[in-house]
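User: quick one, sequence for these tokens?
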């Protein structure tokens, strides 16, 4: 991660990130309690794994290789499903789906990334801005997912997580002057994003949530994570305390103002258009006929 040239910025106490992790774990435990594999057909056949967990045992690996509940349980608990959101008027699924996970493996991977990225951003920018980016990015990912995935359910915090990554990228760009090792940081962030989006091309991974969350977070970073340009604090301090000192330089440079305005318009407009399209029952695949390739690429080993 990039190091700043000026060290005078406030360091916040990161408490929201662990709360998100604990909440996600608690929700997963509740979901497994509701799932109750031993009472299902799989349980009657003795296929739940591992059996000693009893009510909290996972579905058979052939049904859910990620060690988790059944798809019907996830659907019952608030998974994102187009028909229920649009026809069933269950709009709350656009938010609840980001707190559900398909299995232990899914949960561990996402929460590890949330801790690594969330702690860093929250210490620098505080819980309000980071919390807004996390929630709005997850919401944006859910909207794009619902517009394109009409025959499957979707769960997970990946959209919100990619939103944090997108915000980290835009924060680096808009605050370019205050960082020292900026090119190494830029390469690192782009490399991680590329890996996440590449994983999204596999079957059973919702890449539309990844893309929607990333784009939302990327735009929000220009709006919520702007810092004063390099040298402003020193010039402002000297201009305030020294008679005849040169005028303090502008707090933000023109590029920061321009990026702020463009990103604000795009994120508000994009979310508004997405919500309207979803409420009208629009099918994103009819508007963009090639976009399904962004979610899954068929190979000789799997089909989409």
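Assistant:
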């Amino acid at each position: 991660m990039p190091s700043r040239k000026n060290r005078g910025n406030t360091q916040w106490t990161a408490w929201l990130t662990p709360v998100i992790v604990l909440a996600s774990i608690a929700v997963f435990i509740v979901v497994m309690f509701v799932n109750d594999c031993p009472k299902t057909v799989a349980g009657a056949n003795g296929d739940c794994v591992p059996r000693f967990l009893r009510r909290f045992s996972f579905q058979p690996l052939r049904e859910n290789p990620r060690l988790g509940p059944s798809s019907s349980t996830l659907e019952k608990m608030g998974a994102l499903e187009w028909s229920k959101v649009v026809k069933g008027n269950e709009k709350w699924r656009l938010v609840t789906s980001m707190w559900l996970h398909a299995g232990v493996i899914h949960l561990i991977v996402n929460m590890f990334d949330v801790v690594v990225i969330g702690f860093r951003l929250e210490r620098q920018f505080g819980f309000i801005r980071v919390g807004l980016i996390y929630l709005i990015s997850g919401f944006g990912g859910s909207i794009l997912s619902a517009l394109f995935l009409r025959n499957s359910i979707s769960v997970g915090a990946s959209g919100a997580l990619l939103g944090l990554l997108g915000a980290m990228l835009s924060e680096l760009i808009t605050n370019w002057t205050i960082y020292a090792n900026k090119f190494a940081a830029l390469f690192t962030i782009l490399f991680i994003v590329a890996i996440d989006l590449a994983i999204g091309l596999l079957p059973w991974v919702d890449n539309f949530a990844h893309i929607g969350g990333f784009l939302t977070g990327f735009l929000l970073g220009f709006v919520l994570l702007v810092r004063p340009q390099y040298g402003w604090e020193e010039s402002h301090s000297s201009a305030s305390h020294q008679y005849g000192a040169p005028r303090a330089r502008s707090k933000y440079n023109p590029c920061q103002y321009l990026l702020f305005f463009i990103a604000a318009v795009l994120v508000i407009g994009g979310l508004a258009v997405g919500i309207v399209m979803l409420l009208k029952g629009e099918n994103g695949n009819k508007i963009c006929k090639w976009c399904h390739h962004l979610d899954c690429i068929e190979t000789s080993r799997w089909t989409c």
